[in-house]
Amino acid sequence: MNTPSRGNSLKWLLLVALAAGCGGSEPSVEVVELKGVDESVGTSESALTGCLAYNTTLQVTASSLNLRSGPSTSYSIVAAMPNGALIPTLDNPSCDSGGWYRVSYSGVTGWASGSYLVVYSAPSGTRDAAITRAASGTSGAVGGVGFSYWWGHGVWKAAQATGSCTGNCGACTHSGSYGADCSGFLAKVWQVPSTNTNVSVDSHPYGTVHFNVDSSQWYTIDRGAMQKADAMVYNLDGAGHTFVYESGDGWGSMVVHECKGCAYGCVKNSRTATTSYHGIRHF
Questions:
Q1: SMART domains from the xrefs (predicted)?
Q2: Domain boundary among 104, 119, 134
Q3: Residue 29 and residue 23: Cα distance in Å, rounded?
Q4: What is the pLDDT of residues 11-33, one digit of tens each?
Q5: What is the pLDDT of residue 22?
Q6: Where among 65, 93, 119 does a domain terminate?
Q7: Tell me, what CATH number does 65's domain have?
Q8: Is residue 100 helix, strand or coil?
Q9: Which of helix, strand or coil describes residue 148?
């Protein structure tokens, strides 16, 4: 029998630790080609200028936009942001420096040209629709609340049997065809990735290990700035949890929707969150 080397064994143990938590799976790494548009060709009429509040969401309008290490084209490219990418500003206030803003993309901090950015506003009703996907689905609605906790899954359907869970997850036992764990629930509520729109089709694309770090689809926000359908997450020492925020004080009592655990199922309830949690935003 072949015995793995010490180095390979350590790598294997690290992957196992990262995969643990509420429906955790092996982490994925986004790879982007470092190329973009010529930032010098933006027109003054279309350029974003002036000061914006911290965590203002900006959207990339170019086919690809460079994220640079400083506020001019003389600085190196640290990432390439695709068309439509949502990126938050980082300063309060966040004022342009010669037409450039300091922003965050996929966990990387850098500067982007305001010539290819607009202030993003979620379409009317987007947050309400997300909460509808979360809310009780046992009386004809489409929401996941009321269904069972199902480790490694995310699927529910109105007026169907809710399922049941017994034991301690991830060695728990589930019966029935519907339910979700915490991260499978959030992915359905947020419809991430963009193909994950049908709540009655089982899908579990992310674990808390993924939601715990910024990506091209969500980013960290201050807990005091939580809005309806934002979420909170933690992943620490191989364990994690996430839940969907509806209302309340991000640092105090909140009304949330969550697949809480095997003994609880997917519920709407009031709760607080320890300092291990941080806020994340998709919309």
A1: SH3b (SM00287)
A2: 119
A3: 18
A4: 433 333 334 457 544 433 333 44
A5: 75
A6: 119
A7: 2.30.30.40
A8: strand
A9: coil
* Together in a domain, 55 and 74: yes
70 CB-near residues (< 8 Å, 6+ apart): 111
Q: How, if at all, do strands 239-248 and 254-261 pair?
A: antiparallel
pLDDT at site 140: 64
How many domains in the chain?
Answer: 2
Query: What's the distance, CA 87 to chain centroid?
Result: 13
Q: Which of 89, 94, 96 is nearest to 281 (CA)?
A: 89
How far from each other are the two terminal CA atoms of the chain, in whole angstroms?
51
Please check whether residues 107 and 227 belong to one and the same domain: no
Q: Is residue 112 part of a domain?
A: yes
State the DSSP string of 200-264: TS------HHHHTS--SS-EEE-GGG--TT-EEEEEETTEEEEEEEEEE-TTS-EEEEEEEETTT
